[in-house]
């Protein structure tokens, strides 16, 4: 390894010397910090400034009534570091709305058991003040601003609506996009995938019966077709796709068939059209579902996604459901 010599008083560069000034700045600024550490830093700085101010007041005005009883002249009775620690806890508590966990974190950072009481007072006071200003913490606000479909576990849904009131398609919507178990070719399935952006597709017996068979994910479908075209002989655009174990005998001149039974979810989560939405919302929260199929006597009627549930909750709260944007 060849080393370049430099003067003894020269400092090593934190970046390659061949980079430009703007690239230097970009390299120096790429430091992850998130929201947790900066909140504590801002609180600690503010608390430290307050502690230094109190220390100066106690030193030069020790005869004031507020200092006379417990701060003797020339004594070091104010600890700015304690103010910094309490300020960090207060700022972090107001930003994140943490209480008990925040006190435990601060105790683990400092190891001072005698500071538990001021930390508890700071955490509770900051939470009360922040809740008086707004009910959202900074992480809740970022979830809403980034458009993440998140269901709050603590909120209760008590409205008397049914799954058929929330499911899609509605009366004015186009019919639900489905795949059939034995009558679609590779070209037909690829056309459905390219024309839609859904994460999965219900599989039915036929478009006439709409009897539900299962659910297949979009990514599994794309990967399976691409793999079959490359590795399985005779798979062309006109090849039939079967989501069943057995395929009927075909004429010798017909192309090979593609069996995708292994990627089919035979037990997707379903509810009936008369299921109360209170139960559906509870199911989405506890099981972490992204979608739920709606059936009636085994016949597929529609689908409910987490975004549909959130829009329905907003509508029941007299909010505009179209104003909620999801990513």
UniProtKB/TrEMBL annotation:
Coiled coil: none annotated. SUPFAM superfamilies: CBS-domain pair, Clc chloride channel. It is a multi-pass membrane protein. Residues 167-231, 263-323 form the CBS domain. Keywords: CBS domain, Chloride, Endosome, Ion transport, Membrane, Transmembrane, Transmembrane helix, Transport. PANTHER family: CHLORIDE CHANNEL PROTEIN (PTHR45711), H(+)_CL(-) EXCHANGE TRANSPORTER 5 (PTHR45711:SF7). This is Chloride channel protein. The lineage of its organism: Eukaryota, Metazoa, Chordata, Craniata, Vertebrata.
């Amino acid at each position: 390894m060849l080393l370049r010599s430099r003067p003894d008083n020269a400092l090593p560069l934190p970046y390659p010397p061949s980079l430009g000034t703007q690239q230097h700045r970009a390299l120096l600024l790429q430091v992850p910090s998130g929201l947790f550490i900066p909140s504590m830093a801002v609180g600690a700085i503010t608390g430290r400034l307050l502690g230094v101010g109190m220390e100066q007041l106690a030193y030069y005005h020790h005869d004031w009534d507020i200092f006379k009883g417990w701060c003797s002249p020339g004594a070091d009775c104010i600890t700015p570091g304690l103010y910094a620690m309490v300020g960090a806890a207060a700022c972090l508590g107001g930003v994140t709305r943490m209480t008990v966990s925040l006190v435990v974190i601060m105790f683990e950072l400092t190891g001072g058991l005698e500071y538990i009481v001021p930390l508890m007072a700071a955490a509770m006071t900051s939470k009360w003040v922040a809740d008086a200003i707004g009910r959202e913490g900074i992480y809740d606000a970022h979830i809403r601003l980034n458009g993440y479909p998140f269901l709050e576990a603590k909120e209760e849904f008590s409205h008397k609506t049914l799954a058929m009131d929330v499911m899609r398609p509605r009366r004015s919507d186009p019919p639900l996009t489905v795949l059939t178990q034995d009558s679609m070719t590779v070209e037909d399935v690829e056309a459905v995938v390219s024309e839609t952006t859904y994460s999965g597709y219900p599989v039915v017996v036929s478009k006439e019966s709409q009897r539900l068979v299962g659910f297949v994910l979009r990514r599994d479908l794309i990967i399976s077709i691409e793999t079959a075209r490359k590795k399985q002989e005779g798979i062309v655009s006109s090849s039939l796709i079967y989501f069943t174990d057995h395929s009927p005998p075909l004429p010798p001149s017909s192309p090979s068939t593609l069996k995708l039974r292994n990627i089919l979810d035979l037990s997707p989560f379903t509810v009936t059209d008369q299921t109360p939405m209170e139960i559906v919302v509870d199911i989405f929260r506890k099981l972490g579902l992204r979608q739920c199929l709606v059936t009636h006597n085994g016949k597929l009627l529609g689908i409910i996604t987490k975004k549909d549930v959130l829009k329905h909750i907003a509508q029941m709260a007299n909010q505009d459901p179209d104003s909620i944007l999801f990513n």
